[in-house]
Amino acid sequence: MKKIELLAPAGDLERLKIAILYGADAVYLGGKQFSLRSRASNFDIEDIAKGVQFAKEHNAHVHVTVNMLPHEEDMDGLKEYLMELERVGVTAIIAASPTIMMCAKKYAPKLEVHVSTQHSSTNSAAANYWKSKGMDRVVLAREATLEEIKQSAKNSDVPLEVFLHGAMCISYSGRCVLSNNMTGRDANRGGCAQSCRWKYRLFEKDRQLNDDMHLFSMSSKDLMGADYVADLIEAGVASLKIEGRMKSAYYIATLVKAYRLLIDEIYEKGRLTPERMKWYYDELAKAENRPTGVGFFEGQPRYSGQLFGINGAGVTQEFIAYVLDYNEETKEATLEVRNNFKGHIEAEVFGPSITTTRFMFNDLYDMDGNVMEVAKTPMQIIKAKVPCKMEKDAMIRKVMVKDRREVY
Ligand code: SF4
Q: Which intervals hold domain Peptidase family U32 C-terminal (predicted)?
């Protein structure tokens, strides 16, 4: 049986490499053209080619979102762009527009075409429809329940991709013009301003229903699907997707590492005990995300699936340093500072292959060997003697609270 794919977002080359090093089987990214979020993309075709090369060296794949719903004025250069993606070795495009899908099939036939979640496919008939049109994978809607995912996998023969973790749209996955109307930024051409998460006063005619201490926002909890990984494997789903092309390298590393271990452990041992799953919940909570819920897996989200008033990150740990090098003999690590921290604090290191370990920092040193009280300049290179094994590309986080329940 083919192992389920772990698919992670890549906002730039650094995050692409981190996702793959930490265990993603494939990454998806948006190019500067024909992609939602293209305004935020750092990937021109040369960078996509570099990403593909890195992925191939690590036995991974690159998918490119070409998921804009193009208007007439957006069509120039589409054919050439798709041919370029094929030439540099991209595995698949993720498309929503039939124009783009058919163009890829005609001019870049080696590219797989994955049907974007923007089509809101929630059943096997929809999946089979796309199969009949020659599509190679269907990304199911975030709104599909676990039962619908199982039925879709059982009754269709096209590979299915399922959202496992990340932000949810309060509308029906992007079928929303709130941002267009309030800011002039088109959600379906990559410009969503997340107007749903702003804070609002509510009025019934002239009467204000909420006071200014309790402003209203239409904000859903993020999805956290750890509890459903075993079900999705058993159902025969092809790919599990982490959302978040705008998220940090630390966020990506934390989630990919945890889900990589979880998937591998389920393949090795079957369903895990509640105690073991608790360890994974805690690991996933170390990413700086919003409070999480189960999305639509159990059916329509209710009150408990929404956030009222809470929109910021509930951080249990803070990313403080990136490990550039580790000397096994001298037990010395070379670190790139990301957030300020003092010596002699409790921290945790995790990395692509080392075991996640808590430790106490000893003294910190600048590159001239002077002891530092505080590492406070982001991107400064420093040295530290550390009591546990580290590795290049590992990350160090400061332990802020022991348990996420202390945050909420
Ligand atoms: S404004 Fe909110 S609900 Fe609308 S598309 Fe953007 S994220 Fe979704």
A: 316-397
